[in-house]
Amino acid sequence: MSKIYITEDIKNYKKGLEILEKIKNYKVIEDEKTFVKMIQELKLTNEEEKKYMLFTTKKGNFLKSYYLDDNLSKIKEEFYLSYENNCPFNCLYCYLRDYFNHSAFIFYVNLEDMFEEIDKFTKKNTMISAGIVNDTLVHDNLTNITTDLIEYFKNREELILELRTKSHNISNLLEIKPHKNILISFTFSPQEVIDRYELGASSLKERVEAAKKLQTHGYSIGLRLDPMINIENSDIAYQNMIKEIFSTLDLTKIRDIGIGTIRYKKGLRQKVLSEVNTDLFYNEFVVGIDGKERYFKKIRIDMYKNIVNSINSYGKFDIYLGMEPQYIWDEVFEKEGKNKWIT
Fold first, then answer.
1. CB-side exposure of 236: number of CA atoms within 13 Å?
2. Nearest Cα residue to 36 out of 109, 90, 101, 87
């Protein structure tokens, strides 16, 4: 049975026709709702669902605002694009397991509608992220979405486009002229964390080498050290990771660094443990002010201070925390106040 599906209306769009030139074995399905119902009725595991793909059109908004509890400090990823849902990587901590009601890959081809929507976005000096509900690079050979995004955003210099990834699939990016407002952000984890919890994702070495090649090509790079996992000897594991990253990359082309620890809604734990035998949730967690479970305050602060100190041994960088209240920022950056990103 084919695992690639399309809806007929993609033939009315340029991107849909481009993709149909690349895929030959597919089935036509009525709409996204029918596709999702089919996936759910198959009673597949999360990993099995990820083998299914749908190319269709989006009826709602492409530009989304990131929900953040009022008690948490503002984050850079305030807005994101949803032209694509899910990715083939099987990261056990991924909140998308509990965000969508399936794990199949969906790509919306009506990019013209997306860009018309962004045309109306007038907020300046704002970052719009791609890769919050997907991975921007893993299917780029098929969708060529990076070309479309950069072609549009190069003319919107008042905005910053962030392309976030755990993939080393950078071939398309190396064919595109870099622009100052385009930021390629890699999520980095120690190899031990990748092996245990980021199943199918590129290795640490592959990500570092890809980031270096992009820097050489002219891109600015963002480091996303999030979520940090409190594995055994985590302080040493993350120190070694920082050493590998910072001894390889051009430090003058690191635009910013986001750090955070694992956080999740309670339903995620149940879904993961129903399919996978993992120690990911063995630590004690506490429910935060936003309803998500997190490590205890002291564990988080110790992990943050450890990695911030490691980073600062290489110089001063723009470092910010992901989804933490102000008092955590104050404790972590008590001696590095100038590093803290504030709106």
1. 3
2. 101
Based on DSSP, count helices (H) and strands (E) in the chain, helices before strands: 13, 18
For residue range 63-110, what is the model confidence (pLDDT) as tens digits?
Answer: 999 866 666 666 666 899 999 999 999 999 999 988 898 999 999 999
Give the angle 244-232-293 at the CA atoms, nearest 5°.
Answer: 100
Three-state secondary structure call for residue 61? coil
How big is the chain by its Cα radius of gyration, in Å?
20
Q: pLDDT tens, 235-279?
A: 999 999 999 999 999 999 999 999 999 999 888 999 999 999 999
**From CA 264, how far away is CA 227, in angstroms rounded?**
10
CA distances to 86, 101, 106, 137 from 29, rounded to whole Å, are: 19, 18, 13, 26
Domains of the chain listed by start with CATH number: 4-339 (3.80.30.30)
Is the pTM higher than 0.90?
Answer: yes
